[in-house]
Amino acid sequence: MANSRANTNSRQQDLRTPPSLRRKIRAKLLRWYDTEKRELPWRGETDPYRIWVSEVMLQQTRVDTVLGRYSQFLSRFRSISSLADAPLEAILSEWQGLGYYSRARNLHRAAQLVAESPERQLPRDRRSLALLPGFGPYMTGAVASIAFGERAAAVDGNVIRVLSRLLDSERPVDTPANKRALEEEAEALVPPSRPGDFNQAMMDLGSTVCLPKRPLCRACPLARECQSFAMGTVLLRPVKTKKKPPKNVTVFQLWAKRRIALRMVRREEDGLFGGMWELPGWMEDGHRERPDKKTLEKFCQNALGPGWRPVGEIARVSRTLTHRKILFVVLNTLAPKEKPGRFRSSDKTIWAKEEDLVTLPISTAQRAAIKAASKALEDGQEKLFEN
Ligand code: SF4
Q1: Most CB within 10 Å of its CB: which of 2, 36, 273, 318?
Q2: Taking Cα atoms as reference points, which of 57, 103, 116, 111 lies closest to residue 79?
Q3: CB neighbours (10 Å) of residue 271?
Q4: Quick one: which of 324, 336, 346, 332 has its CA closest to 271?
Q5: Are strands 257-258 and 324-334 parallel, antiparallel or unpaired?
Q6: Domain with CATH 3.90.79.10 in the chain
Q7: Any catalytic annotation for residue 378?
Q8: Residue of 166, 202, 216 to mutate, ligand 1, most atoms within 8 A of C-beta
Q9: Cβ(209)–Cβ(220) below 8 Å
Q10: Does any ligand 1 atom lie closer than 6 A to the CB of residue 115?
């Protein structure tokens, strides 16, 4: 591959490769895939539904984690219609530990749309797939190519890294224009035959050889074609603009127990942890020591009813998500003595017993906060508020 681009201005760098080089890359990568591909339960799968589920799971979750969950999910939801007929709560519950729950909600909505369509099966072309919830460019390309053999690229973070190294791209990969240029080259690279295998080969190369920090260039089937290997710039690619640090937020939550049941509330379906269950609480910007006393008392009354009062802090757990660093602060409350009150439940609030907590869809972060709070109470670690 010519190296003349290395000194060009990043705005001018052309990311297109000549057709003869594309043919070489395809042939070498497919040959490598035929002998080196990872053995995974969804490899060789022909059922579009099962391929779709695997791709949704793999989109933002490590392969090791998906391996432990894929078969179980499919044994519970065997087909698109069984997924469509299941309540969202059952799907969220089965999704626990995989994270990014919006994927499960989209999977459910898309299954319902497919089940209501005259064909009752996934559309076979990219354009129709792209109309379904959760089918962004990556998912559309992956399902269209792997399940239906359509010539379409599936460009995820791994593929972006491989491509920007192969092309020694100096253009930051996180601007829309540069990302589009890489996606266009990725589209051009996909061969007319075996497009699904080619996409999976790119993913495997990114996951097992072209690693972010320690790429195994000497074992790479594309080393001779790789421009950043030739230029000695491998570890400088992909170029990224500086990311904003995640925003600090504090979630104050109430631990309210009546006999053996814990008050839990269900989040709105849209947004972070949508549709999941959690302790009642509210979010504030920044990492905070204590909530404002008046705000806390007012929230306590509104969320739990008259007479409930906050008495102390029992746990602090922090978790970093993509855009937020969340500090959960769990505060213990006391029930009013005079009136026991009714144990009211609805589809948004319940009194959950221990066995309910096992089956309710609850995010991993929230489970950690509940576990920490429960242990602190057992160990007598409550920090009581001063009056
Ligand atoms: Fe990645 Fe190295 Fe292969 Fe280039 S030679 S594609 S940098 S593993």
Answers
A1: 273
A2: 111
A3: 9
A4: 324
A5: unpaired
A6: 247-384
A7: no
A8: 166
A9: yes
A10: no
pLDDT tens sequence across 77-114: 999 999 999 999 999 999 988 988 999 999 999 999 99
DSSP sequence for 283-334: EEES--SS--HHHHHHHHHHHH-TT-EEEEEEEEEEEE-SSEEEEEEEEEEE
56 Cβ inside 6 Å of ligand 1: no
160: which 2 tokens?
Answer: 């972006």
- From the list 39, 45, 55, 338, the catalytic residue is 55
Homologous superfamily in CATH for domain 2-236: Hypothetical protein; domain 2 (1.10.340.30)
Structure tokens at 31: 């040959």
Phi-psi region for residue 154, left (φ > 0), alpha (ψ -120 to 50) or beta? Answer: beta
Range(s) within the chain of domains with CATH label 1.10.340.30? 2-236
Q: Which two tokens stand for residue 384?
A: 């009581």
Helix (H, G, I), strand (E, B), or coil: what is residue 209?
A: coil
The two structure tokens encoding residue 327: 């500090």
pTM (2 decimals)? Answer: 0.76
Q: Which two tokens stand for residue 329?
A: 């602060």
What's at 12, amino acid-wise? Q
- Do residues 126 and 301 touch, judged by C-beta distance below 8 A? no
CATH number for the region 247-384 comes to 3.90.79.10
**Using one digit for the tens of pLDDT, what is the confidence trace for 140-181?**
999 999 999 999 999 999 999 999 999 999 999 988 899 999
Q: Are 142 and 129 in contact (CB under 8 A)?
A: no
